[in-house]
# Entry
Amino acid sequence: MSEFKLITTEECEAATERLLETGAKVGADSWQMRVKNQTPHCKFGEQGVCCRICSMGPCRITPKAPRGICGCDAAGIVGRNFLRFTAGGAATHSDHGRSIAETLYEARPEGPYKVNDPEKLIRIAKEWGVETEGKDIYDLSKEMGYIAMAEYGKVFGYQNWVSRAPKHTQELWEKAEITPRAVDKEVSYAMHMTHMGNSSKAEALIRQSLRNGLSDGWGGSMTGTEFSDVLFGTPKPVDTEANLGVMKAENVNIIVHGHDPSLSEMICEYADSKEMQDLAKEVGAKGITIAGVCCTANEVAMRRGVPMAGNFLQQENCVLTGACEAMVVDVQCIFPAMGPLSKCFHTKFITTDDRCQQPDSEFIRFSPKTAEENAKKIVRMAVENFKNRKPELVHIPELKAKATVGYSVEAIVKQLDGVTNSQVDVTGTTKPLLECITSGALRGAVAMVGCNNPKVRPDSAHIDLMKKLIANDIVIIASGCSAQAAAKAGLMDKEAKAICGAGLKRVCELADIPPVLHMGSCVDISRMMILASELAKDSGLNISQLPVVGCAPEWMSEKAVSIGNYVVATGIDTFLGVDPYVSGSAEVAGLLTDGIRDWVEAAYTVEKDIEVLGDKMIARIEEKRAALGI
Ligand code: BF8
Ligand code: SF4
# Structure
């Protein structure tokens, strides 16, 4: 009936093959080649049983050597490694949030950073008990920026955002002693606990892993999301395009890559200016195309409709098109390969943040105080580089899909009101969404998140799972590189309703939404926590009773482990397609996949067979429905 067609993994792979041919001509390296050099991986590392936290080691656990030199067993080593992995992720996400708070502190009426959503700022201020009456909005943004930064080192008490969680969830955290304190405290605590000669008891290490994760999801990440909305606007549905075909041969192409919208927003701003557009024409281009990679792509797509060039394992492809004048990066998930690769082409690889300095890059330090001049310099540098392009190397794959993105919690609540035709009084709650679930039109929801990982055929797990779930009337809420995988394939095109089950298709038609909802970047998984909390409050159920699960089928980063921990600790069963390096200890693996259920009413499932992973998620959702009698 419908002509709707997804872009297939095979088509994406063929496009990549063609780009790698260009790479071979100029002597470029690629992740595909480096994976071969690094395989097989170290088995001790994969099982999590290698310890190198003191110089008596490294120690590795084997049947013949069941303890390290200090006497630590497999459970202690695996547990410590897991906690350090979490601390790395929580610190990274949360520090991104801190940067946003700094930008908020610098907001001024004359710009460049302004308060875009004053209502949201006032709402949060009231939530935090800050006086708003009669206060100038920029006095308030300064005050709130300061308080948000101070939260990171708060001396006593818990994170402010914790009060948003349902009462039952807060009680569970209290009882399990995992209510998150200040982010910096939780990260330091984790590092202290895992120093030589400290904690080696699996249970204590996993407890802190959950608490440290919660300090990210219900602390640093939520700060990043909420104040990004205040500064740059709360996302609303907007149309865009995704995949490499969004780059334009006739234009100057600037790729923004990384995470913090403080940089990318300014680059977009100045690329749009008449001065830069005129300059682009002067150098022989038709205009300037900005396209995003990784979470930066999500940030600018959902607020500006800026197209998404690709996700994590597609970053090198952008340069391999030969049409990338500049790759501008801030922090996180930037391959150190980008510098050497850019040298094989005319591409300027521009690093901007002290925390992400890489060889073979041009470093332009970016700060909220000097944002305007930094952004101008970067855009100018890119435009002037157009003349250095080598036309014989230019090849942009003709692959792109339509996508509607920008489904913040606020936008979902608003949009779903269209589904129920009765109550006018439900506007502003999640009740219409709950009705869809209770009636069975939607069987449930899956939060699809996380990265690409060469251990999984890139994007295939995301796409195959999403196709299977939507065919079973399960709506998807996606973020990070999972969201981009969906957008690149066409699953965020509203026409993708054609491949949904009848119930979800009807909901998509009535609410005018795609079946896979783009909820933003990885820090925006905090939005998913808010949505789950609202659903629980509006339904009178506990979060763990909702037919909702989380899934990261291709995850790779420490941040993903921190996320997994806070999603599970919030009461949402989480399904992983890549092993979290805990198989070396049955005790740690048992805690994560079962034991923690006693504390937080949810646990992990690890399953590398993606088909089976999908079946298990559907079964879990149906179990929860059966328990509710719906
Ligand atoms: O924070 S999904 S590869 S881009 S870590 Fe990185 Fe993973 Fe992508 Fe955003 Ni998230
Ligand atoms: Fe080995 Fe113990 Fe030192 Fe780890 S802390 S490297 S197990 S001696």
About this structure: The first strand starts at residue 50 and ends at 51. The chain has 25 helices and 16 strands. The pocket of FE(4)-NI(1)-S(5) CLUSTER with Oxygen (ligand 1) is lined by residues 259, 294-295, 311-312, 333, 450-451, 480-481, 521-522, 557, 559-560 (CB under 6 Å). Confidence is low (pLDDT under 50) at residues 421-426.
